[in-house]
Structures are given as structure tokens and as C-alpha cells.
Design goal:
CATH superfamily of one domain: Ferritin, core subunit, four-helix bundle
Number of strands: 2
Bound molecules: manganese (II) ion
Length: 327
Amino acid sequence: MFHHVKELQFNARVSKPDVRFAKLLLEQFGGPNGELKAAMQYFVQAFGCRKAFPDKYDMLMDIATEEFSHLEIVGATIQMLLTGVTGELKNAADESDLTKMLDGNAAKENYIHDAMVNPQFFIVSGGTPTLTDSVGNPWSASYIMGMGDLTADLRLNLGAETSAKMVYENLMKFTDDVYVKETLRFLMTREVAHYQMFQAALDTIQPNFPPGILESDPKFSNKYFNMSKGEDYKGPWNEGKSPLMGEEWQTVENPVQHVRDTDGLLEEESKGTDRTEKSVQSANKKLSAERKEKIDKANAPKNGVMSWSEYEDNQKSRDENKSLISK
Ligand code: MN
Ligand code: MN
């Protein structure tokens, strides 16, 4: 269950209204790399590992909940940046627009000018944040990625944290407000913290590469196809040992000829690896059985009932009541 605490996680402050920056900041409210995307991605991923990986469930739910707290901070900041807009709109009865007349035509021109920055703030949302990105695209569930496998999901989350961090880094260049900058720096930093949490969690699952269960075909996992002419650059991506599987990189220098010579790679030979078709098949069987057993065991109904949560104190008092009745 969720419990709302009235204070923000970080004391977000703003020195003055800024409709332009409010519009840019919408990117982290309802955009593809924003806080709602992160919150919903980790929330949805958590369900699948509640029983089999309770530690990862706990982490995913904690981080999802923190992302909701960030969404709240971003929304509050946008609202503060829009100070004045809401009040002006509620001033609907004042047809003479006295405030503007007193301030002169220049103020009115400014107001119209600000409205053009993001018309939605002024004519649709009544001066509140909208669940869109900075150019008005509505938030979409298609931003969410989850494959139901932690070795895949945690990697997807490393990507999500990377892009979220970068958007904050870029946003910081577009405001001079030291208070807003302070909040953005906090939000950016938390994504750096989350990145490391996901990496550390991934490292506790072994083996975790390749993602999922099935090993790769040993004939192709260490081949580098030199698909261009000119200077050939070398690096750990095509020479020495492959970083995660420790196989020797093999460069196919002339891919066109090689594909023809091997009947379209059907007659490819495996080189530079200890893995064989036989070892791959047996590793696949072993890991499949291990993961299946772990999940089946964790999800098995107890006493014919499936229950998501355990309420220990209640169970204890129920047992005590039972023993009282039987006396
Ligand atoms: Mn965040
Ligand atoms: Mn994050």
C-alpha cells in the first residue's frame, strides 16, 4: 500500500516564476525519460519477482516509490514556476483586466508572449503541470520496458537511469535560478545512485550474461564483421578477449567473401572459444531447471491459498484466538 507524506523528499524552492523553464521541465514530468516513466517501469517490473527474489522486489518498489517522490518534486517545481498564471486565469470576471491596464500595455504583451510558450498552461490546464513532455506529447505506457526477467530488466533500468540523468544535466543549462538548479542537481544525483543500485543487484544474480536463460551460439558470439573499408580501428570490442564471455575475438576481414564461402554462414566454424554445441545445450538445460525450480518453489500455494503478503502479528493473534476457543 502507499502512504502519502505531506512534505516533499527534497525541499524544492523557486526564486521567481518562469513559464519558459516550466515548459522545459515538463520533459521530466510526462516525458519518455521522466520520473513517471521511471516510477512505473520499476513498479511494473517488481510484480514478477515478489516471491522468487524478495530482495529485488523490495529494491524495485523502494526505487519506484522514490521516483514517485521525484515526480512530486518536479510537479511542485513546475507549479511554483507557473505562479501567477493560475491566479490570472481565475480572474475571469474581470473583463477590463485591471491589473494589466494598470501595468500598461507592455505587461499585457508579456502575458500573451508567455502564453505562446506553452498555450496548454494558459488555455487547457489552468496553469498546472500537464502529463506531457515539453512539446505536448501525452505520456505513454509505451515508454515502459520490462521483460519479466531480472537480468534483462535491471539492464533496461541502467539505460533508463542514464537517460534520466542526462536530461537533468541538460536542463540545468537552461535555468539561472539557483534554487531550481539545486533541486535539479539533487534529482540528477539520485539517478546516479539508482544506477549503481541496479548494477549491484545485477551482479548478485549469477550467471547474468547473456540476459535471460539461453546461451548464444558459440560460432557467432565472438565474431567481428569488418563491414567497412579504410582504416581498421582496433579495440577491446574486436581484439583480445570478449569482456563478458572471455572468448577470443575473431575478425572476419572480408565478410562478403566469407559469407559466400560458408554457404551463408551455415558452414561457419567456432573458433576462439571453449564452448561447444554440446556444452551450450547442457548449460541451457541446467540454468532453465534452476530458474524454474526457484520460481515454482517460491510461488507454490501454502495450505491451498495464495497470499501476496504476510501479516505476522495478525496471524499470531488469529492462532491465539483459535487456541482460546478450543480451550
Ligand atoms: Mn528520479
Ligand atoms: Mn532513478
